């Protein structure tokens, strides 16, 4: 058994949007609809658990939920319903970023990227269908976790494979464009599913997410011929090169850089956990006599990510013409600093809430805006870095491993969310600002040695 090809496949002859390969548009639109489905469902999840599943009339009918609570409380001690719901939400949102490791291995070793993406979409559709029933809640979450693991990292790996070796600038901007599509879904998903759930009930909101996932699969199939060919193990093909010592050093450097990102990731994703509780309880959401659903605030993340991308692309192109565009690690470091600032400014309204006041919606809007800017600085850049620098033999697997930082960050979100009822709200946000700032400081220290190693890494530099 051997890998059919270890070099990245370039499919750049057919030009599509903004001078990029046509395959980018299909991958971006597929991911947009998948993310619309994912964020629509996720925006409902925490409040659904608290307001429906944990109510006395329903909790006993949910398969294995009691055993899950017992298992979690064995590790954490007794939890309030809010704390338990936050733990479940964080486990789910974390595990969807853990399973891409195995999805990448499945693609690299057996199925190839395209077939693994299709498998993931089918699993996710089944999961969304089962979310229509209270009893199958945990089964549905399990299918969604497995499906996302098959789909997420492999679509990102395909984006990187569309570009020629050494085309670092276009690849990084392609991932930024890719994240416009993702955040279009993040913007519309909470709005569509949140409003439908509020008007027609939880299960209509979840069912809508399933229909959107089906549409994502259709888009992917339509664009099939424009996607990079699958790389998988085949009989009778020459064996791939073994990883050299330098490859292992590159892998170690990428793993270290990804591990640093756990802290700002936790600070970023907390806006969708404890931040949502803050909005629900303490933010004035009245507009012309109508109360904006707290879940709809999650749409701001997608909106501000979309707004940030063209601004940053213009900035980076302007800098590139003058030979001053920051390298990948510098962009990542700047992103961490911005996320620290986003959480730091929340100390001001949180102090007012600690004194019993209700605060303006301006504050969560500012949090989402700065968090989104920081995220667009660091996350698409990390994806582009991994796509370029990871050895070709394990490129999809390494892309999946990058998502481990998001998994671990979300586990940390759940643990820290338990402090929401213990710390003052001002101290809670200050703690998250400190986490992101610590990552910024570490990156300043390691940027030069890691940057030198990764600058020459990538399939084009393999013998």
From TrEMBL:
Source domain of life: Bacteria
UniProt-annotated location(s): Cell membrane
SUPFAM superfamilies: MFS general substrate transporter
GO cellular component, one term: plasma membrane
Pfam families registered for this protein in UniProt: PTR2
Membrane topology type: Multi-pass membrane protein
Keyword Cell inner membrane found: no
Main location group: membrane
Residue spans crossing the bilayer: 84-104, 116-133, 176-200, 206-227, 248-270, 290-316, 328-349, 361-379, 400-420, 426-446
Molecular function per GO: peptide transmembrane transporter activity
Protein name: MFS transporter
Organism classification: Bacteria, Pseudomonadati, Pseudomonadota, Alphaproteobacteria, Sphingomonadales
């Amino acid at each position: 058994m051997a890998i059919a090809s270890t070099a990245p496949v370039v499919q750049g002859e057919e030009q599509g949007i903004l001078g990029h390969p046509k395959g980018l548009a299909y991958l971006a639109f597929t991911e947009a609809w998948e993310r619309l489905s994912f964020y629509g469902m996720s925006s409902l999840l925490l409040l659904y658990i608290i307001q429906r599943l944990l109510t006395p009339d329903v909790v006993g009918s949910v398969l294995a939920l009691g055993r899950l609570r017992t298992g979690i409380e064995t590790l954490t001690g007794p939890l309030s319903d809010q704390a338990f719901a936050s733990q479940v939400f964080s486990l789910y949102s974390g595990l969807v970023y853990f399973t891409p490791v195995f999805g990448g291995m499945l693609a690299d070793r057996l199925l190839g990227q395209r077939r693994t993406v299709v498998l993931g979409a089918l699993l996710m559709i089944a999961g969304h269908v089962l979310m229509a029933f209270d009893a199958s809640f945990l089964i549905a979450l399990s299918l969604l976790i497995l499906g996302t693991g098959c789909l997420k990292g492999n679509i990102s790996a395909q984006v990187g494979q569309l570009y020629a070796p050494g085309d670092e600038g276009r690849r990084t901007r392609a991932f930024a464009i890719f994240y416009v599509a993702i955040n279009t879904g993040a913007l519309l998903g909470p709005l569509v599913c949140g409003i439908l759930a509020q008007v027609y009930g939880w299960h209509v909101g979840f069912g809508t997410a399933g229909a959107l996932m089906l549409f994502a699969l259709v888009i992917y199939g339509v664009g099939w011929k424009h996607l990079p060919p699958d790389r998988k193990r085949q009989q009778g093909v020459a064996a791939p090169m073994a990883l050299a010592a330098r490859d292992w050093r590159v892998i170690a450097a990428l793993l270290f850089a990804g591990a640093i990102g756990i802290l700002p990731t936790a600070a970023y994703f907390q806006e969708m956990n404890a931040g949502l509780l803050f909005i629900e309880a303490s933010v004035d959401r009245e507009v012309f006599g109508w109360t904006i659903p707290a879940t709809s605030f999650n749409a701001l993340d997608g909106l501000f990510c979309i707004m940030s991308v063209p601004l940053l692309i213009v900035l980076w192109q302007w800098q590139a013409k003058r030979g001053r565009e920051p390298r990948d690690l510098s962009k990542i470091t700047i992103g961490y600093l911005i996320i620290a600032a986003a959480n730091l400014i929340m100390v001001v309204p949180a102090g007012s809430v600690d004194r019993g006041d209700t605060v303006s919606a301006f504050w969560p809007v500012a949090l989402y805006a700065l968090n989104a800017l920081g995220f667009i600085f660091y996350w698409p850049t990390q994806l582009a870095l991994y796509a370029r620098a990871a050895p070709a033999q394990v490129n999809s697997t390494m892309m999946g491993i990058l998502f481990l930082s998001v998994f671990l960050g979300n586990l940390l979100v759940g643990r820290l969310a338990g402090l929401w009822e213990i710390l003052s709200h001002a101290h809670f946000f200050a703690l998250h600002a400190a986490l992101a700032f610590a990552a910024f400081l570490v990156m300043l220290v390691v940027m030069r040695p890691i940057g030198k190693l990764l600058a020459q890494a990538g399939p084009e530099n393999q013998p």
